[in-house]
Fold this protein.
Amino acid sequence: MTDASSTRQSIPLIIDCDPGIDDAVALLLAMASASLEIRGITTVAGNVSIETTSTNARCICELGQRSDLKIFPGCPRPMVRPAIVAAHVHGENGLGGIHFPSPQLPLQQRHGVDFLRDSLLQASSPITLATLGPLTNVATALIQAPQMAQNLDRIVMMGGAVGAGNVTAAAEFNCYADPHAAQVVLHTAAEYDVPVVVIPLDVTHTAIANPARRQALRNLHNPVAETVATLLDNYGLREQRDMGFSGPPLHDPCVIAYLLQPALFELESVPATIEITSPLTQGRLVIDRNRELDLPGRIELATSIDAEGFYGLLTEALGRFS
Ligand code: BDR
Ligand code: CA
């Protein structure tokens, strides 16, 4: 694999995820990009159980020919509310029912929260955190050792909806699955002046893997790109039908794309929090453009993505696999 971006200084990165089809694509995009130095992958319960997200992370590392990566299994359930899963979107195995060989890559013995906390406490230079699932691991680590935030360069997260949600009318999956954790993360980051880039559903819903974009991946004729195209054929079919999309939205890879090519996105700096108490709007990303509420959080909210540029980046990156 060669990557033109490898000449740039690399970004030390921890990826917290719940694979999940779009998490899998995000992981592969990161693995294909030499400018990202993946220090570790932590898994969390979300799209499917912690056992399954952890197995899937192992399968995806092997698919991406990166058995050198370390995977640390994290929290098996949200902080307060009962767990929900999204097997109806990602399939019972979290990977659209596609069969992967049993992975040989072992899971690390250390808990994901311990890895996150200690990596940040001991970091000699700032680390970027990419979050692709519910924020349970990150919030737990921040509660244990809030000073770890001093070594966070930034958090880039997929989550939240400014318009309609995808689990309830108000809430997007990652924020709905563990709203308390999401609130802890936003508030603690603000307290320590850590930038939080939030890529919400409103943006990822414009990054659709339409048939032409899936065909472009297939045309790369390598096993990774072909597997991604097959995964996307099976992803979120009900959501596509309900929303009138011509393919699945690629939520989580937007996080990695932001790290690689931030110019693909427009951002707006806004005060924000996550609603945790209201039964109707629990998990809502509340933004206060008019600065009326004196909210404790502040985010860099993505408001648009250059979808053609994003798919160009993804296709080029996956073309690096042999
Ligand atoms: C988010 O929820 C999950 O189903 C996806 O993996 C993504 O992280 C989109 O709402
Ligand atoms: Ca995810």
